[in-house]
Amino acid sequence: MGKFDRYAFSAQPSFDEAATRKAFSKAVPLKTLVIYCYDPRAAEIPNAVAKLFGDEVFPGDIILDGSGNRVASTTTIFPVIVAGGRAVDALRSITIAQHLFGIQNIVVVHHSHCGGTSFTADGIINAYEHEHHVDISKLYDRSSICISDYETSLKHDTALVRSHGGTPKNVNVFGYFYDIDTGALTEVVRDVRRT
Question: At what angle do helices 150-163 and 91-101 cross, to 10 degrees?
Answer without folding.
Answer: 50
